[in-house]
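ARCHIVE CARD
CATEGORY: sequence design from structure
SOURCE FIELD: tokenized fold
FIELD CONTENT:
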């Protein structure tokens, strides 16, 4: 076939699908079938239950009752992921990728083909979806302009269609589009059905006449019930049989929707009763075709895409690095902010020197170096939420899992965090005049990198727990305040109430701050405070007091940091970061799987 590939025919059928929410019935025992090589449109006024039905058929509603079948096999989480794609109502795409890149990466994740064959299939999909003119344009987002709304909608369809799964669900693919863009989208869907044998099921709201004529089959719903189910071309004749003739200034689909909409009637309940009676009369004349056991539609179900884990890792890593490198809002603005923070800190505490006063200033510098850059890790929350929709769609589509995404997100973030750590350390170290050997600088940078990576990992837990920006940000701010308060700088360890001691050991900032202190004070010598009448006063007692000096080790002993092992504390930071990443992966898996 010169247009992609011919698919194994898979019919989708459903039997007595019911769903209720908060004791309100949404779907009332629906039965029906969608056939291979045809486009089924699900229509109805707002609140009719069409989107709820679509989610039930796609296996995305865990609270439904009834049965869904792929051919004669009961649908489940695994075979639905392998055999069906889902295009949500909102376009969820990576904004900084081009149209061609978006479709190409989707192909690599879903098609076990040679590179040349995948390229041919990508070119075919781009041509058939009318995206040839924008293939090199970035998708865009609310932050910067990319392709148009209609083009973005076609990209959303294309990234699912490139997987050539036998069944494709779409939630209002023409919503918000002008008539020309809607016609192009539905024309593409029709070609997937007629040229490739796909089973297309889409919810549609008020299509134009040209768009409506491209549908093969039609399911019209009202208040959770089916009121018509059959060929779209037969709708007008069916309505005539019922005694309803389409007015000259309307179309059969518009007139049908008007007849079953009671939202604007004064006597709503009476109107609903009439609509239910009409629906019952209508369905008696066109009874739905339900599941037929033994029916295979001539095709066999897929078990998986066949793409190996290694290929998925390679694809996701390339895509993640390219998207991150172009995402100036998420990474490069943060890099600039780290540089600005470093200059601010370095000029406020400029050239600390070796007087007794510099001891407290050094503690303040090191505290600031841990607390504020780590606090800036909250910027990771909008970054994750921005790509969450794409990742959810791909995981639900069986392209990879939450663990693989977590690994890739970790690897792609490390280079940018490393750049931030090197930049910050390179600026603050000479400006502050910190412990001046090259070895101490590398240790400082290593501790700082471990701290911000741990902070970044800690922040990811919150949007995985609650994927609402404001709530996640509020929880993250509390979490940051918690670890900052109990790390041991504001409140010394011995003064922390016993019931909060666990929080001290949980605080990743404790380990970063103490390791930085050990690196800084170990080996330094400070001058004591000179008295006006001669002699000196040394705040820290050791063998150098006779020379009006004291050792940095005496400062560490006074604060009970003398036994700190930098290597051990860095290992704790890295271990906590890994622990937070595992927690994120588990929470995100549960979020995708059950919510």
């Amino acid at each position: 076939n010169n247009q992609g590939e011919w698919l194994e025919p898979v019919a989708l059928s459903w039997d007595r699908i019911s769903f209720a929410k908060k004791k309100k019935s949404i779907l009332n025992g629906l039965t029906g079938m969608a056939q291979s090589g045809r486009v089924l449109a699900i229509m109805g006024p707002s609140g009719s239950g069409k989107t709820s039905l679509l989610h039930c058929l796609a296996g995305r509603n865990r609270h439904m009752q009834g049965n869904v079948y792929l051919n004669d096999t009961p649908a489940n989480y695994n075979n639905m992921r392998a055999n069906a794609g889902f295009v949500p109502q909102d376009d969820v795409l990576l904004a900084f990728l081009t149209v061609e890149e978006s479709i190409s990466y989707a192909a690599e994740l879903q098609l076990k083909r040679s590179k040349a064959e995948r390229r041919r299939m990508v070119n075919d999909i781009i041509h058939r979806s009318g995206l040839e003119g924008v293939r090199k344009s970035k998708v865009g987002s609310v932050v910067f302009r990319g392709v148009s709304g209609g083009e973005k909608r076609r990209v959303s369809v294309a990234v699912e269609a490139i997987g050539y799964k036998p069944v494709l669900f779409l939630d209002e693919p023409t919503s918000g589009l002008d008539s020309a863009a809607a016609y192009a989208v539905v024309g593409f869907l029709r070609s997937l059905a007629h040229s490739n044998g796909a089973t297309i099921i889409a919810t549609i709201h008020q299509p134009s006449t040209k768009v409506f004529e491209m549908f093969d089959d039609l399911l019209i719903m009202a208040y959770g019930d089916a009121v018509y189910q059959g060929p779209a071309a037969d709708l007008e004749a069916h309505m005539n049989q019922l005694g309803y003739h389409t007015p000259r200034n309307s179309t059969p689909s518009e007139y049908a929707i008007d007849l079953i909409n009671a939202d604007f009637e004064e006597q709503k309940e009476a109107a609903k009763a009439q609509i239910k009676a009409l629906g019952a009369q209508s369905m008696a004349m066109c009874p739905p075709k339900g599941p037929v056991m033994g029916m295979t539609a001539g095709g066999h179900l897929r078990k998986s895409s066949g793409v190996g884990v290694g290929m998925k890792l390679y694809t996701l890593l390339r895509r993640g690095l390219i998207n991150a490198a172009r995402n100036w809002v998420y990474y490069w603005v943060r890099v600039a902010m780290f540089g600005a923070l470093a200059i601010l800190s370095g000029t406020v505490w400029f050239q600390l020197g070796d007087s007794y006063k510099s001891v407290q200033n050094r503690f303040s510098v090191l505290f600031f170096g841990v607390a504020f850059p780590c606090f800036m890790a909250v910027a990771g929350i909008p970054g994750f939420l921005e790509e969450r929709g794409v990742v959810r769609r791909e995981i639900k589509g069986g392209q990879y899992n939450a663990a693989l995404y977590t690994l890739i997100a970790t690897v792609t973030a490390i280079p940018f965090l490393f750049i931030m750590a090197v930049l910050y350390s390179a600026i603050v170290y000479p400006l502050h005049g910190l412990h001046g050997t090259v070895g101490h600088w590398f240790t400082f940078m290593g501790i700082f990198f471990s701290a911000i990576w741990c902070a970044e990992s800690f922040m990811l837990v919150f949007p995985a727990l609650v994927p609402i920006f404001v709530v996640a940000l509020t929880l993250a701010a509390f979490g940051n305040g918690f670890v900052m308060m109990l790390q041991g700088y504001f409140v010394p360890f011995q003064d922390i109430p016993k019931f909060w001691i666990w929080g001290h050991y949980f605080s990743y900032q404790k380990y970063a701050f103490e390791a930085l202190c050990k690196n800084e004070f170990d080996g330094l010598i400070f001058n004591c405070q000179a008295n006006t009448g001669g002699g000196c006063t040394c705040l820290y007692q050791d063998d150098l007091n006779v020379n009006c000096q004291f050792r940095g080790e005496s400062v560490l002993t006074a604060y009970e940091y003398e036994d700190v092992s930098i290597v051990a504390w860095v290992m704790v930071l890295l271990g906590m970061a890994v622990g937070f990443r595992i927690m994120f992966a588990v929470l995100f898996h549960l979020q995708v799987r059950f919510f």
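CARD ANNOTATION: Residues 402-432 form the longest helix (31 residues). The first strand starts at residue 12 and ends at 21.
SHELF: design records, drawer C
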